[in-house]
Design goal:
4% of the residues lie in helices and 35% in strands. The two termini are 23 Å apart. The longest helix is centred in the first third of the chain and has 11 residues. The chain is mainly beta. It has a single domain, classed as Tachylectin 2 (Tachylectin-2, Chain A, 5 Propeller), CATH 2.115.10.
Length: 300
Amino acid sequence: MLNFVKRPIRRAVIRASGLASAAVLVMAVAASASSPAAVRGSAQAAGPAAQAATSTTPMFPAFGRRADGHLYDYEPAGTGGFRSAVDLGGGFGNATAIVQNNVSAAGASDLYFRMGGALYYTAERGIETKLLGTGWDQFDLLVAGGNFGGAAQPDLIAREPSGALWLYQAAADGVLAAKVRLGTGFQGMDRIIGRADFTGDGKADLITRSTGGTLFLFPGSGNAVTDAVCTGRLTVSAGWNTYNVLISTGDQNGDGKADLIASDAAGALWLFKGTGDSAAPFAARVQIGSSGWSSFNTLF
């Protein structure tokens, strides 16, 4: 059974006998959960109205998974880098997707994970792992989203192989509302990052990278409305295919602006400080890790 217990540095240590055993147990007691198209509410339901912009930019840890199934927690140091890794335990190797999102009342990172076609959620300081639904193997990508619809909790983003991108708004218990189409044509993107406000207007934005290496910014509208979650597409720059990992941990260096983190094939880690300017959202890169980051098969 997957458990979370509080530890001194803001987050919890995961004590796990393995996600596989947790999934089997939860599946047995919650096999009636609904499919991703109707986890809660009616399909294509519009989200709440846009909320007023806020000036706070959260800071998140980075998680890395190695081939042996162990998951590692890297807490942000607040100056651009990370603290020493904490081993959260093994058993994560069978998850085909893992997403961290701070949806619970604890205000820290929780996990969504997929085993086969089933999607599970576990809160950071809870002991319950719940089955949210089946059929999630229809998506080829699951990523954390920001607060696109103006609700209190951040969202989950899923992509179909056809390129359709879907937004699932989360409640404080991790349960997801009915999906809302964010857009189409995303099959040409090999990286999607949606956890932060990169333009400084208080609304969650989307960053994508094309297979050709071009980085794009999709400013958020603040409304979870079909095909109107974002207001358009802006080209950031080319040449980003030199990085095999792109993630956002929010405000990594404590200046109030959302940043981007990249890892290259050599295992070096780079910080692109956010500017809050949609015309040039990132400053020149700064190296924050020299090697070893290529040892993870998943970094999120």
